[in-house]
Amino acid sequence: MVEIAQATYYTTCEGCCMNDQFELDVPECSGTPFNWGTSEPSEDVLRAEVARIRQVVADWNKAHPKNKISLTRGVRENYKVDDPTRMGRDDFQTPKWAIDLVIPYIPKRYVVWECCEGKGNIVNHLRDNGYQVVGTDIKTGTDFLTCPVPDGVDCIVTNFPFSIMDKMIERAINIGIPFAVLLPITAMAEKKRSDLWSQVREQVIIPNERICYETPTGGKSSPQLVTAWYTVGLNLPRDIVRVKRPPTESAQPKLFEED
Predict the structure, then answer these.
(1) What angle do CA 61, 43, 53 make, to 5 degrees?
(2) pLDDT at residue 91, rounded to an integer
(3) pLDDT value at residue 250
């Protein structure tokens, strides 16, 4: 990952929603790009390295047209992005079927806060299912980490930016209302997150398929990790609920034991 003129470049496989490496995700490049050691490189060195990486990408894509990689513009350790299209590693929208997995556990009387609404997939689908929803997003000026809680909301339902999930989880727990958030299955691990989750009783909804999110360019991702709904205060029937993807958009998700 390198910064030039306040822009940050990192590499990602085309369609991959979660590649947080500092190197190209191809064997030929592993371990070499963006390896600066301990010294801060000059701008000329940075520009030369980006040019080299761009050529590596071009050569790879020419040789592997069915498995292309790309350079994407974003920022490090934040989900704000300089460019107006918000082309960042956290700008991935949730499909309807994934939202359907959590709807049975959200009381209809609840006013829902979607605090990272993006293009509005969760907001619109919840409204279509009869919920009152307050939608906010950092790109429209409301930062979940610092903003006041909107009046009258009863719970949070959102797809958190994975790159800063520790901060987002901590903020959600501190607010103290029920929530359901999409996170990698590994969000229950590691010391800091374990310390955070120990403050509450988290219950997890795990789908039988990996969720393919809508990418910043409007395509579908090919996820390399399992994501799940982490819930607090929604009183699921058990702490781990395994559900099957609905076969059609109009069908309801099923628990495994319902077959």
Answers:
(1) 10
(2) 72
(3) 60
Pairing of strands 69-74, 111-114: unpaired
The candidate with the shortest Cα–Cα distance to 106, out of 151, 153, 143, is 153
CA distances to 54, 78, 133, 215 from 86, rounded to whole Å, are 21, 12, 23, 11
Structural class in CATH, domain 96-258? alpha beta
- Spatial separation of the C-alpha atoms in residues 17 and 225, rounded to whole Å: 9
Spatial CA neighbour of 6 closest among 70, 78, 72, 82: 82
Two structure tokens written together for 203: 């219950």
> Taking the domains of the chain in order of start, what are their residue ranges?
2-74, 96-258
Mean pLDDT calculated for residue range 177-185: 95
Q: Is 209 left (phi over 0), alpha (psi -120 to 50) or beta?
A: beta
Q: 43 is written with which tokens? A: 């701008």
Q: Specify whether the CB–CB gap between 21 and 224 falls below 8 A.
A: no
pLDDT, residue 143, reads: 94
